[in-house]
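Please, structure for the following, as tokens.
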Amino acid sequence: MITTAEQYYKQRKKWQAELLLLRSIVLDCHLTEELKWQVPVYTYLDKNIVIVYALKESCGISFLKGGLLKDEHGILKKPGENTQAVRLIRFNNIDDIHTLKSVITDYIFEALEMEESGVKVDTLPKAEAAIPVEFQKRLDENPDLADAFFALTPGRRRAYLLYFCGAKQAITRETRIEKYIPLILAGRGIND
């Protein structure tokens, strides 16, 4: 198990040079390095500012209040269609990071200024997603499943419902529901 940011970087074989360059950029901005959620998180005034991460096909930096940044260069992207605040920059090679080094630094300092000013992200209320008929039937038939589902955090419930409802055909919804019932019963989210 990874217990330090140093271990995180050492264990990454793919993207290691890119990650270390991103790390040096962030640390040059005088942020505090911590390990949260098994990834390096950089804080200021005890607030999470950015995350440096590696995926299979890319690596990058994630700005936790990136939706508030001006993004004059148009490089910040939403990680998902339902994301409200987080914005990220993905990289596939070290040259792109070198090219954007000063922009990344400017964005970090802008994020720090926002944090100092106390600006909050105005998020839209997350309405509970609709429960598809197929899943409602399962909940009605199985009280343990219903108890486990409604004991999940609102975000975990929402993630399941968005995934289930994302299937256009009933058979696909049934298949998805069946696959994830064990996780729900175990009290885990779809991405846990």
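The first strand starts at residue 32 and ends at 36. Residues 63 and 145 are 36 Å apart (CA to CA).
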